[in-house]
Structure formats: C-alpha cells, structure tokens
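Running this now, will post back.
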Amino acid sequence: MAGKSLGVSLEAARKIIQAGQEKAKEIGVPMNIAVVDAGANLVAFERMEGAWIGSIDIAINKAFTSRAFDIETKALGENSQSGDQFFGIHASNHGRVMIFAGGVPLKQAGEVVGAVGVSGGLGTQDQAVAEAAAGALAR
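Update: finished.
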C-alpha cells in the first residue's frame, strides 16, 4: 500500500512548530505554539523563550477549538459577537473554546487532520504565525 497516510505525526508537528517559530522570529514576537491531531489531542507544544506563560493554555485551547469546530478561531470569533450565530460559544466545552485569532485547522487532501494554535502577541500576529505554521504541513 503506497502513499502517505493522513494525520499529524510528531515529526510533522515539529515541522509545523518550527515554521511557526521562524515566522515569530521574523516579526519579533516570541510565541507559544501547539499542534493537535484529528482527535484534538495535543501532539506537540513549544514555548519560545520569553513567550508569555499565560498564553500557554490559550495556544493549546486555540488548537483544540480550531479542530473541534474545523474553523479558524479568527472566523469563530467574528461570528460569536453579540447577536451573531455563535454568540456564547466561548462558554462551551468547559471554557476551552477560544474566540481569538491564532487557531488554524491543518488539512491534507482537503480533510482536516488536526490544528495549530498560537498565542503570545496581538491577534494579527498570532494569526500570521499560525498561518505560516499550518503552511508547513503542505510542504
């Protein structure tokens, strides 16, 4: 049986984190980066030197949220404001749901196989690092 299996191995997770760290260094903001598999289980996590300790849990939960709902946390946040369709969703799943930018699903062959979560900067910075990290899975 030839072909690449879908999923997020530890090796792939390390590659994803490394790509995120490279982007974080480029923008000058130390980040916490978490990678989860298709079951939203943590595969790998790294905290860059100087990254906020308070953002460790946020990065892990952004990855969980992105996989749990197969959506970028940025988009979930945009749709969870008062009066919108997902208002109040952040209180679900025992408070693990993050509605800040920085969580991005990981896809292979059009299928979500995990997610990456990034925290440590402004939302735009977290999102940029998460997108760079997610892009490493395709390489």
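Strands lie at 32-37, 42-47, 103-108, 111-119. More later if anyone needs it.
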